[in-house]
Design goal:
The protein is built from eleven helices and nine strands. It has 304 residues and is an alpha/beta fold. The protein binds phosphoric acid mono(formamide)ester. It comes from Pigmentiphaga litoralis.
Length: 304
């Protein structure tokens, strides 16, 4: 791998290699913090043109644990705010001897554009582009599912909520189907479902009670109000009534089902606090696993 831009098209063996490599770093992601010198002397630039808490911070922690030098460009204080183009920004940072760009951008395809443009020794990792893809979130979600459920080929997984605007849903669907999950369900109101979901190999449900029956894994999605641009917005109360994960709805899933959410959560909109903080939730574990997974991805694309 030279870049990580999307999970779509990644072979199963490559995904498993990332997960296995992450497992070898996992003890480093606990409290026993040790550095490894794999990226010693390399310069990692975090370019977050959209806000982030989890992804930006865990990339920084991961890069530092690999002994890289990390630079977080403050986009609001950068010359991008004066109108400098994306590629001019990249050219200038490349002239500062960048080795790896971690890019989040509101425009789908921005990391691909950068990857086509940079010199061959520079690597690009997509940290979320528009509605398109969030591959490291998809990989850390797979790591989490494998950690709790071991065998992908015996699972029913439900992805619930604002699928239309979700780059996480797309990355998770590609990863789950590639890893051999026999039943991937998406549950959403028709207004938040993109056309042609079935062609991705998923079963579509608009009734949450129906869709949650017997599932082993529930991945809740954030209602992405900032991407709706005048679309039919459900009221928070209405949405919560039909698609919010409550204890009552969770009881329809398998008794040992795990509850995931990429964050940030809208409590009381897509998930009730009693579920988000309950014993079946693995949401904060996802964040911790994200460090090891991002170490794995960076070491695979940019390591010796
Ligand atoms: N899951 C996720 O991408 O969270 P952030 O937006 O905080 O990075």
């Amino acid at each position: 791998l030279t870049h990580l831009l999307s999970i779509e098209g990644l072979p199963r063996a490559v995904i498993n290699h990332v997960l296995d490599t992450a497992a070898s770093y996992a003890p480093l992601a606990d409290h026993d913090v040790k550095k490894v010198p794999l990226l010693h002397g390399k310069s990692v630039f975090n370019l977050f043109f959209e806000n982030s808490t989890r992804t930006r911070t865990t990339f920084e922690i991961a890069a530092k644990r690999l002994s890289a030098d990390v630079y977080n460009l403050n986009i609001n204080a950068s010359s991008a705010s004066k109108g400098e183009s994306l590629l001019d920004t990249i050219n200038n940072l490349s002239a500062m001897q960048a080795d790896l760009f971690v890019v989040r951008h509101a425009s789908s395809g921005a990391p691909h554009l950068i990857a086509q443009h940079v010199a061959p020794h520079i690597h690009v990792i997509n940290a979320g582009d528009g509605r398109h893809a969030h591959p490291t979130q998809g990989l850390l979600d797979m790591y989490t599912i494998r950690h709790y459920k071991q065998d992908f080929t015996k699972l029913t997984v439900a992805i619930v909520g604002d699928v239309l605007h979700s780059r996480v849903a797309r990355s998770d669907i590609h990863a789950l189907t590639t890893l051999g999950v026999p039943e991937v369900r998406v549950i959403a109101p028709l207004t938040l479902l993109p056309a042609g979901m079935e062609s991705l190999g998923v079963k579509v449900f608009t009734d949450m009670a129906e869709g949650l029956k017997g599932v082993d894994v529930i991945i809740m999605l954030r209602l992405q109000n900032e991407r709706m641009r005048g679309a039919l917005l459900p009221s928070a109360q209405e949405y919560f009534k039909h698609y919010g994960l409550t204890q009552d709805k969770l009881a329809l899933a398998a008794p040992d089902a795990i509850v995931m959410h990429p964050g940030p959560m809208n409590r009381g909109v897509e998930i009730d606090s009693s579920v988000a903080d309950g014993k079946q939730a693995v949401i904060l574990n996802q964040v911790t696993f994200g460090i090891a997974v991002r170490m794995a991805v960076m070491s695979i694309v940019a390591g010796a």
